């Protein structure tokens, strides 16, 4: 075996030996191996890369007796191809040449300079502008789970701990790009985190409290974690420590911009479980072409604002004062509409300040981006000036938090040209007058020909040689050429270097000194410019924390202005927030649906009132398509919008603060996990019933429809009773159902009320009024809806026949017998549909006809009458 390995190793080329040694250190990553002007991939990596990137797969020799797959692309195309690999879920190790190939004999030294993963990247083409790119870490310990989130592109670092439903909620809201977990907890992870994420397993010794605590305090330079409010979050600390470890092994060592870690305080935000976040389509649509709430709310002009709004949407507030502070700020802008434009103009020029300053901290910023940073900071000046003019306290507080960073603006302005190159090694990025040596070198490098002409003119005049010329070759550099006719005029200090047929070539001390200057000028220019640029980056590094604070303030301002803009455009009103438990909405509208209606069509508003004294549970009946689900969703969305500090689509809204919002609306089969619609429905319902509070808002739509009618009614009935009879948690509930039997509950329980979404019957047609009215409904009009959907006519006729037979006896315990007595299906062609009024008229005519006494003429007249009735259809 040893001989075989030695023989195989002997056949490898030196380059492949180097590749295999580096690859062995990063076995789980796709290795981009720099060879000259290309990044190459080999073996299995090449096969993967060729498929993902759609590049050619070839083979190259790997020593004398073997070949290996090969696929590559030019090094300058890295920003094009890297994002495709990362978005495909690949971990990508970038292996660069660590020394200049020209100065090395043999194999160039190479090493991995960065390991890019879905959750750890600064590449603008990998990151989504309006989305955070979170790396998450989870740690399971008995009944408590720790979780941490880091967006390395912004420096935001968060941690929390709680039970499994709470962690599920956070993961659903934050949607991490990659999740880390302990290698020994693989089974627990698979059973607990039922979503598909890019994952990475870490050794179990990393997930320990001693290691993680030391890792965090070492990073932040503190003796404890008390100042961050996470000292007692053992599981949260363990999860966060693993993230810092992961940054090390992915070669991310410059992380000074991660200057803080915050606790996600469960008590501070409304509980939205993972089902509610999904069902209400807050951030992502459930179906292709759908519109989530964020698309209606987000009119932010900065990427920071868009990212902050997403966090606000999934983390609504529970504090009355905090909610009212936001609402008051939105009210200020909506009442001072003329000021909005004054803020928007500079805000639009700011760009992604948050990610720009993070690039400064990690030393990955280019000259053009530093100029963008200067522009962003300059545009904060008019924003602060406008904020200071306000007499509202909340607005002035925003102004006080903005640091103008004038020294940095001046430093960048003095150092960089107005339109610098994209890369610092392209030259021409430093302004004239900043460095005297640099200015002299530029004159030499870029005004060289002029200087040579000056020497030539001077020497022609001094020597009297009219045909004197200066030229250059690689053998002995710059020289003076004199024709044989004038060689007797050559000064004695000139040194002869070459004799030609008709001329002589000379060099001088002055030319050699100038030659050395001009040949070294460009390399010296590069060195000096790089040094000055690095000094500028170091200077900017001192402003990381205040600029991060600026980014937060500007993001908040952007969100407030977006809220004010949609309030004015869509006629939203400021909700009244109270500590009470009454929810009263007058003429509420669905914020998403009303924006999707055809031009000229108005959304039909509805009133909702819920409390814990008289009207705790509304049982809402009505046909399919009448708007029951929309009514449930709009109620939740109005409450949620109010508690994130946004105006709401209604005439009036009194919101008694809600601490939990639960929805059970719609369900899709989770067949890949072996779960049916009914199983998903029961799982979501169980989650609601096990987490109720006295301030919960519960929305349930068609509970029990996934099983038999009797099971469904029984489950729905018992759930409503349970919700009503909870002594400590009188949760406000909207319960939409097709089971009209549930209307009976209103007579048995004092806080249950019946409502229906009204319809009008016009002949055989049904018109949906979409208006909520008191009282229950007795009809579902399902057959009408089937007909409207284009169901084949004979199926509709047959369904009607069965329905009318069953409705002859309302006693449900006889239904089993009734079903057996349903008449056999008759598929012969009918002239009339069942219950057709013309059919009844023809039937009446024929019934009253005495065929024994009727004359032929009378028979023809009757036949003509019947024909007339049929022709009206």
What does it look like?
The protein has 873 residues and is of the alpha/beta class. The chain folds into seven domains: 115 residues, 3-Layer(aba) Sandwich (MutS, DNA mismatch repair protein, domain I); 134 residues, Nucleotidyltransferase, domain 5, CATH 3.30.420; 116 residues, MutS, DNA mismatch repair protein, Chain A, domain 3; 94 residues, MutS, DNA mismatch repair protein, Chain A, domain 3, CATH 1.10.1420.10; 205 residues, 3-Layer(aba) Sandwich (Rossmann fold); 42 residues, no CATH class; 35 residues. The chain is built from 31 helices and 27 strands. The chain has a seven-stranded mixed sheet with strand order 13-23-24-25-21-26-27, with helices on both faces. A six-stranded mixed sheet has the order 3-4-2-1-5-6, sandwiched between helices. Helix 15 runs antiparallel to helix 16. The longest helix has 33 residues. The N and C termini lie far apart (91 Å). The N terminus is likely disordered.
């Amino acid at each position: 075996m040893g001989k075989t390995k030695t023989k195989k190793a002997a056949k490898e080329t030196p380059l492949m030996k180097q590749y295999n040694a580096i690859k062995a250190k990063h076995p789980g990553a796709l290795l981009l191996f720099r060879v000259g002007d290309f990044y190459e991939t080999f073996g299995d990596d090449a096969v993967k890369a060729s498929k993902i990137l759609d590049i050619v797969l070839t083979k190259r020799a790997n020593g004398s007796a073997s070949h290996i797959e090969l696929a590559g692309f030019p090094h300058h195309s890295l920003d094009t191809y890297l994002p495709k690999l990362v978005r495909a879920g690949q971990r990508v190790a970038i292996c660069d040449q660590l020394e200049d190939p020209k100065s090395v004999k043999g194999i160039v030294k190479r090493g991995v300079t960065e390991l890019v993963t879905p959750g750890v990247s600064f590449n603008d083409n990998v990151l989504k502008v309006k989305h955070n790119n979170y790396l998450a870490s989870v740690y399971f310990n008995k009944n408590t789970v720790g979780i941490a989130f880091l967006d390395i592109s912004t420096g935001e670092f968060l941690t929390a701990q709680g039970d499994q439903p709470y962690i599920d909620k956070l993961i659903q809201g934050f949607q991490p790009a990659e999740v880390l977990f302990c290698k020994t907890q693989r089974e627990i992870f698979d059973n607990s985190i039922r979503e598909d994420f890019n994952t990475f397993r870490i050794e179990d010794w990393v997930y320990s409290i001693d290691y993680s605590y030391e890792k965090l305090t070492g990073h932040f330079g503190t003796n404890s974690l008390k100042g961050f409010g996470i000292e007692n979050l053992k599981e949260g600390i363990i999860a966060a420590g693993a993230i810092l470890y992961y940054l090390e092994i992915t070669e991310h060592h410059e992380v000074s911009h991660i200057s803080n870690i915050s606790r996600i305080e469960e008590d501070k935000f409304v509980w939205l479980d993972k089902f509610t976040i999904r069902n209400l389509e807050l951030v992502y649509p459930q179906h292709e072409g759908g519109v989530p709430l964020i698309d209606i709310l987000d009119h932010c002009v900065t990427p920071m604002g868009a990212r902050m709004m997403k966090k606000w949407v999934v983390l609504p507030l529970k504090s009355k004062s905090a909610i009212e502070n936001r609402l008051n700020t939105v009210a200020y802008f909506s009442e001072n509409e003329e000021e909005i434009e004054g803020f928007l103009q500079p805000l639009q020029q700011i760009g992604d300040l948050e990610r720009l300053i993070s690039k400064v901290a990690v030393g990955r910023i280019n000259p053009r981006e530093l100029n963008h940073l200067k522009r962003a900071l300059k545009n904060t000046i008019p924003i602060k000036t406008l904020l200071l003019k306000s007499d509202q306290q909340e607005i002035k507080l925003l102004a006080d938090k903005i640091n103008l960073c004038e020294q940095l603006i001046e430093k960048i302005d003095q150092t960089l040209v107005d339109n610098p190159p994209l890369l610092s090694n392209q030259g021409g990025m430093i302004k004239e007058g900043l460095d005297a040596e640099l200015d002299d070198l530029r004159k030499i490098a870029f005004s060289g020909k002029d200087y040579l002409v000056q020497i030539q003119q001077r020497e022609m005049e001094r020597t009297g040689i009219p045909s004197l010329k200066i030229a250059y070759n690689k053998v002995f550099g710059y020289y003076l050429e004199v024709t044989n006719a004038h060689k007797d005029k050559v000064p004695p200090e000139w040194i002869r270097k070459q004799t030609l047929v008709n001329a002589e070539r000379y060099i001088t001390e002055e030319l050699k000194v100038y030659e050395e200057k001009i040949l070294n000028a460009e390399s010296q220019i590069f060195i000096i410019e790089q040094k000055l640029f690095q000094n500028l980056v170091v200077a900017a590094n001192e402003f990381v924390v205040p600029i991060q604070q600026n980014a937060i303030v500007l993001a908040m301002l952007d969100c407030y202005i977006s809220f004010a803009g949609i309030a004015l455009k869509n006629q939203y009103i400021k909700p009244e927030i109270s500590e009470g438990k009454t929810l009263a909405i007058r003429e509420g509208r669905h914020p998403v649906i009303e924006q999707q209606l055809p031009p000229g069509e108005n959304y039909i508003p509805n009133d909702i009132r819920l409390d814990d004294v008289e009207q705790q549970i509304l049982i809402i009946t009505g046909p399919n398509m009448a708007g029951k689900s929309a009514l449930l969703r709009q109620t939740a969305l109005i409450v949620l919008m109010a508690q994130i500090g946004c105006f709401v689509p209604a005439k009036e809204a009194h919101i008694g603060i809600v601490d939990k919002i639960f929805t059970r609306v719609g369900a899709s089969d989770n067949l890949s996990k072996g779960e049916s619609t009914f199983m998903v429905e029961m799982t979501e319902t169980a989650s609601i019933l096990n987490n109720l509070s006295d301030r919960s808002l519960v929305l349930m739509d068609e509970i029990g429809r996934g099983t038999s009618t009797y099971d469904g009614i029984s489950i729905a009935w018992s759930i409503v009773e349970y919700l009503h009879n909870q002594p400590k948690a009188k949760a406000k509930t909207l319960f939409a159902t097709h089971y009209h039997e549930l209307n009976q509950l209103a007579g048995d329980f004092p806080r249950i009320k019946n409502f229906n979404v009204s319809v009008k019957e016009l002949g055989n047609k049904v018109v949906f009024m979409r208006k909520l009215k008191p009282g229950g409904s007795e009809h579902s009009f399902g057959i009408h809806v089937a007909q409207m959907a284009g169901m084949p006519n004979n199926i509709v006729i047959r369904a009607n026949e069965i329905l009318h037979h069953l409705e002859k006896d309302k006693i449900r315990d006889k239904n089993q017998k009734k079903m057996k007595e349903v008449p056999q299906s008759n598929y012969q062609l009918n002239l009339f549909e069942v219950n057709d009024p013309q059919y009844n008229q023809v039937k009446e005519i024929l019934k009253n006809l005495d065929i024994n006494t009727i004359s032929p003429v009378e028979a023809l007249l009757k036949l003509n009458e019947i024909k007339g009735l049929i022709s009206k259809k």
